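Per-residue structure
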Amino acid sequence: MIFPTFKVFLSKIFVLLFLSTVFTGCENEVKDDFNDVSIDLVDQNGDPFNFPADLKGQPVLMGFVYINCPDICSFITANLYKVYSEMGEPEDIHFIVATFDPERDTPEELKHYASMFNMDQPPFRFLTGSPDQVDALMERVGVRTDVSYTKETDDGEELYFMNHSDKILLIDQNAQLIFDYGGSMTPTNILIEDLEKL
């Protein structure tokens, strides 16, 4: 026989265990913290941009592309715009696209690329910079790249394509990494659901 006071004690224990499980499940686990770096870049308008200082205060969706990509980069870029559109065009979220091909992806080229997706406007920023700074950014966020094909054109210009990570990051208001997605293949409803938790 279980005494009434012991029953009350057990019921309180079960309630506490249940609540701790619920609240733990609601927390966003921090996978990385980008506050250990300061990387100076420029956007498609030539305006300076610091990673991560200029991201703080708002959630961030950040994709990584290069303009001459023949396949998944356009899907990554379009996914960011689709999230923006499906969320009712929010002004309190940063939507960032960063190139890992700074030699070719100048601010002018990025501006043209952004306009093709109707993204040459706030809250979208397309980032490039010096090769050293872009390499530092890619290393810090875990984007891997490798030149996969090179050819010299008839006019002496070098043409090349790159293998690279397929990635969109969700970064919180404190420049902490919350999720790392497959950029071209993650359904936008998942990105939106995770953004709305922040």
Residues 12-26 have pLDDT under 50 and may be disordered.
